[in-house]
Amino acid sequence: MKALPGTGMPSSNSQKSAPDRISALPDDLLLHVMYFLTMQEAVQTCLLSRRWQNLWSSLMWLNFDAAKFSSMRTYRKFVNNALLRRSSLPEPVPLDAFWIYAVCDNSDDFLGYSDIHPWIRHAINSKAWAVGIMKHSGPKPLSMEGYPFPFTSVYLRLLSLCHCSIDDWFAQNLSSCFPMLDDLDLMSCAIHITMFSSTKSKSLTITSTQTEKDFPIEFQYLAIDMPNLVSLRLEEIPRRNIHLVDVSSVKMASIYSHSLLGILRFSAVFSALFQMPPT
């Protein structure tokens, strides 16, 4: 065996290549490792070898975080290309969960709903049971008006929306378009409806709502009619009076109001529900 001068190491001609033991691992184990990577890192594994070329696209949880990108433009391009790649595979690849974090500290740009709508459709068409727009920044809440209702699915069980406009069109489709929906989480949304009604949903969370100064008077009341609801978390909605029509199955409730009157009203309602004497 010849050594390289001055190194004591064998020359490349005689050195045997080490076996690629990582690539020899089963897909399930490699995908489990990818779960702990960012989406950029997971996609970049396609450059390692032919063995890795399409492996990342079999991930069942997709988490696209704009904070990992230098600009919203590069984030938008990355998500579009990644989902286009998944869509072009010979056989459809199902999803479990699909999350969008559309806030980039390094950019003044923001995503419109025209950007997000095809991403949501991809997740729904991939039979995802959990879909969420977890973070979004922009001058106005995302409006779905003018687009086909994006969440029609018999698989969807958890839906989280941030900085979206929730209108009667959305509320009317709540039960008919996703009949298996258990959990609805609305964060920093503009609630432009008069009633939430569902016979299926088991968890409802409404936090940090947005209300315009010239809020229409017809929206001063918000009724909640969800007889199978088990968990209810509400933060006070400015200039709205909450009317609990039927929440008779609620076991866990967290309700916050700035006004003492609001606290007493909710306390009385839940004391009656649980057959407890009011404090």
TrEMBL record:
Sequence ranges assigned to domain F-box in this UniProt record: 19-64
Disordered as annotated region, ranges: 1-20
InterPro entries: F-box-like_dom_sf, F-box_AtFBL13-like, F-box_dom, F-box_SCFL_complex_component
Protein name, entry field: F-box domain-containing protein
Organism whose genome encodes this protein: Panicum virgatum
